[in-house]
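Escalation from tier 1.

The customer reports that the assembly of two entities below gives different structure tokens on two consecutive runs. Tier 1 could not reproduce it. I'm attaching the input and our single run for tier 2 to review.
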Amino acid sequence: MADPEIKSYEPGHDNPSAAVTESRSARTVLMTIAFVFLGVFLLLPLVIVFKEAFAKGVGAYFTSLNDHDTLSAIRLTLLVAVIAVPLNVVFGIAAAWAIAKFEFKGKAFLTTLIDLPFSVSPVISGLVYVLLFGAQAMLGPWLKSHGIEILFAVPGIVLATVFVTFPFVARELIPLMQEQGTGDEEAALSLGANGWQVFWYVTLPNIKWGLLYGVLLCNARAMGEFGAVSVVSGHIRGMTNTMPLHVEILYNEYNAVGAFAVASLLAGLALVTLILKTVLEMRYGAELAATRGH
Amino acid sequence: MTAKSLELFSGGPKKATFAAPKFYNFDRVEYSSTEAEMTKPHFKKLLGILIAGSVQFGALGFAFADTTILNVSYDPTRELYKQFDEAFSAYWKKESGETVTVQQSHGGSGKQARAVIDGLEADVVTLALESDINAIVENSKKINPDWRTKFEHNSAPYTSTIIFLVRKGNPKGIKDWNDLVKDGVQVITPNPKTSGGARWNYLAAWAYANAQNGGDETKTKEFISNLYSHVPVLDTGARGSTVTFAQKDLGDVLLAWENEAYLALDEFGADKFDIVYPPTSILAEPPVAVVDANVDAKGTRKVAEAYLKFLYSKEGQTLIAKHHYRPAKPELVPAEDLAKLPEIKLVTIDDPQFGGWKKAQPYHFADGGIFDQVYKPAQ
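Tier 1 run:
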């Protein structure tokens, strides 16, 4: 993902980039457009979230967060992330490992399949589970007779979230691992390392920053997902409302401070993610550049 | 294999930036794993903190009361049931010593019925209209077909009607239904496919046009078609429409539940909107029912029935009137709470022009029904 940017920065001397040949005024116009656009579409909404959240003072902000239903929404969101993110890590590493390090039939198909959740609307992702696990659906009656609750309960929300966040870690790792090739692993194997050792001491250190980057993105989406979760949640207050759903409910109850207070937590999460991502990019970018130096 | 050969291998130029050149030293690692741990502190520590932190939050867990029942309701009843649930919990504690927590789920009435059909474990449903409960009866058999006979007043503990909410001073002069189709008037109403309130809105408009046109259905359809061409946005539920009108400042008139209109006045200040009572409207009877299959499976039938019965008590009816619904038993309610709700001419769904919900629902709102025929999104 970071490939093109890094390439264009690094060999700057022997490759006069196109931007340099543009006139100064053209550059100024382009940059102004970019900044105005980002300001209006990204910065302003963010400012408004915090402004609305603190509209009635700091006290009202914390009072509104300290509500039973809000706390349970926060807990549920964290719980979902705690389950969905590790699952994604395991799946992502496994898939990236298989795709990047081995040749097998159906590899292209698998790669496409991993991308599926990106191309499907989240509403569909949710409805799929309704059609699969709903009381009127294929598996519904069987689940019901065995006392297993999936839809309109925490497992359904976790499943929908896992589905939607499926590609994040894998997508991050596949290009990285392909870039790195199998040389290191082969060397380790030839020197007598077993499979686990190769993974733990060779592959994992090579991909660690990329992995963390994927985890961050995956976590942000897992906590922020609205569409798919909305379909399978059932919207039971204090039970199956995640933070994004709770924001909508509070807003619809004319509780602007409450809605934006919860929204500010989500925005805060986004900011933390962004900062960590930038820090990681600096680390991971340097490392990538180094691995490409050969 | 020796440690030295590995060291050599990992010391190549392309690994120069790695913080820990001893990653590849298998021999040493096998004997002293602690040292290996120390060579990659950042990553593991970060991951550890992330996981430990989130697990702690997650493990705070949910606190369950002795008994929990779930009331799946429609959009505008949030405020009513918030208070009513507390009153019921107190009442039930006194009555039986049992602690009961009532959970709420709100949304467009049709959407909520769909969720119960798909398996949302509601103990009771308190929806906007009979046909949504009938949909649960027909599609899932979770509610017995004779549910209307289980509680007084055809299982409708209160009635309501549809009125107009306009901008302060009524700048467009909206007084009756035909004012809605004047040039330049924008009407806010939700989607009758997903919202119960929207269906009442539609039927109220229909009743007006039907009376105006002496029962000529073609002309009535024209009026309805014309009306919906004045609707810039169809929200999925009544609350969404209120927010669109009151908070997003869209439209000149909101077709609203009576209670929803008063709530908007309470929330946004009486200086922003006026309530207009049209000369005629519709008598909406939002019904309630116990979801038989669910309460029998969960063993909550007794509480669920007591909960709905409590709606008919003096306390329940007074709360209902306080939230601007029309109580089914007005004699139980202090007169000042009733004063706000004026008498207007109300047509019922059982009027011959509709023939009850069983007939009106498929005729008007099913796929290919009248609404589908006449509705073209506003230009």
